[in-house]
Amino acid sequence: MTARTVALVAHDHKKAELLRWVKQHQAILAPFKLVATGTTGKLLSDETGLEIHRYKSGPLGGDQQIGALIAENKLDALFFFWDPLNPAPHDPDVKALLRLCSVWNVPVACTPATADLVVTSPLFNDPSHHRFVPDYGK
C-alpha cells in the first residue's frame, strides 16, 4: 500500500506558524508522503529534515499543481495556513484550491487549531479509513 499524501502550504506571513505546527506533529507526519509549494517546502525540509516533494512556489503555479493532485484523487489532506489579512496576488488560485477540497471531499485545515484536530483524529492515521469521493460522472 502506498503512503497517503499530505500537502503543506503557507502564505509568507504564516510560514513560521506552519513550521511550528509541523515540528509539533513531526512524528505523526513523517510516515506520509509530504508535498508542498516551493518556498514552504524548502523551509520545512531544511528546518525539520523531513523529505518533502516541492512543487513550484504558489504564485508561480504551485497552488495549481496541488489542485491537480486533488482533482486526480492523489491528495489525502491539505494543511494550508493562508493569510486572511494580507491578500496575495494569486488569491484566485487560493480560492480554487480550497474549492477543490470541497468538491472532492479532501480534508483541509487552515489554522493550527483545525490542523490539531485533523492529525489527532484516529481516522487520520487509519489505513482502513477511506474518505468518500464523490462521483460526478453520473
TrEMBL record:
The keyword Lyase applies. SUPFAM superfamilies: Methylglyoxal synthase-like. Residues 1-138 form the MGS-like domain. CDD domains: MGS. InterPro entries: Methylgl_synth, Methylglyoxal_synth_AS, MGS-like_dom, MGS-like_dom_sf. It catalyses: dihydroxyacetone phosphate = methylglyoxal + phosphate. GO terms for cellular component: cytosol. Its EC number is 4.2.3.3. Pfam families: MGS (PF02142). The active site is at residue 63. One of its GO terms (molecular function) is methylglyoxal synthase activity. Substrate binds at residues 11, 15, 37-40, 57-58, 90. Keywords: Lyase. GO terms for biological process: methylglyoxal biosynthetic process. PROSITE patterns: METHYLGLYOXAL_SYNTH, MGS. The keyword Lyase applies. Catalyzes the formation of methylglyoxal from dihydroxyacetone phosphate. Belongs to the methylglyoxal synthase family. HAMAP family: Methylglyoxal_synth. This is Methylglyoxal synthase. The gene is mgsA.
